[in-house]
Amino acid sequence: MEIVISSVIGGQIAAVEGLEKVVHALIIEMRMSFKKQFENKSFAGLDKVKINMYISGDVSEYCTTSEITKCLYFERKKQFISEFCIARSYWTSCSLSDVKGKFLLLIENFFVSLSMLIKHRLKCKGYDFDSEVFKETVLKSLIELS
After folding, report:
1. Helices in the chain by DSSP H: which ranges?
2. Which of 36, 51, 107, 110 has its CA 20 to 30 A from that of 8?
3. Distance between alpha carbon 19 and the CA centroid of its chain, in Å?
4. How far is the C-alpha of 131 from the C-alpha of 68, rounded, in Å?
5. Can you tell me the distance from the alpha carbon of 65 to that of 3, in angstroms, rounded to the nearest whole number?
6. Each residue of 41-86: pLDDT tens digit?
């Protein structure tokens, strides 16, 4: 299975200078880790998960909270598309030293929620999605980054 993560960082994330560079580097590491962990996994009814991540600044001004804002399943392509929005307020009182932990915790929560959404959607289509294996694989990927 393949996980594709696209990200848009909308300018300066917080008052702390350089926060967006740290988050961008984490996203690059996360992509590589997901690719490695998911390359030999397969799930019935699911070949690809695409995630568009909108992070703070101007691109997420429409979001008042950090949440999953969109989930679509394309049965013919066996593909799930989702959008994660990380609101500007999430980074309040965040220093450079705790960005990584705070970001990874939020991503973990997003993926746990996403696994439940995928499970529900695939169950409606007659597939038995193993959300536990999906979550374990996500956690292994994120632990590599810790």
Report:
1. 19-38, 99-124, 131-145
2. 36
3. 18
4. 17
5. 24
6. 999 999 999 999 988 766 555 677 888 988 999 999 999 999 999 8
Rounded Cα–Cα distance for residues 135 and 132 (Å) = 5
Q: What is the pLDDT of residue 61?
A: 59
Q: pLDDT for 99-136, tens place per residue? A: 888 899 999 999 999 999 999 999 999 999 999 999 99
Residue 140's contacts (CB-CB under 8 Å, 6 or more residues apart) are: 37
**Which class is domain 2-145?**
alpha beta
User: Side-chain half-sphere of 32: how many Cα atoms within 13 Å?
Assistant: 7
Q: Cα dist. 133→57, 72, 128 in Å?
A: 34, 21, 12
Which positions ≥6 away from 136 have C-beta within 8 Å? none
What is the pTM for the complete model shown? 0.89
Evaluate the CA torsion angle 12, 109, 37, 124 in order and state its sign: negative
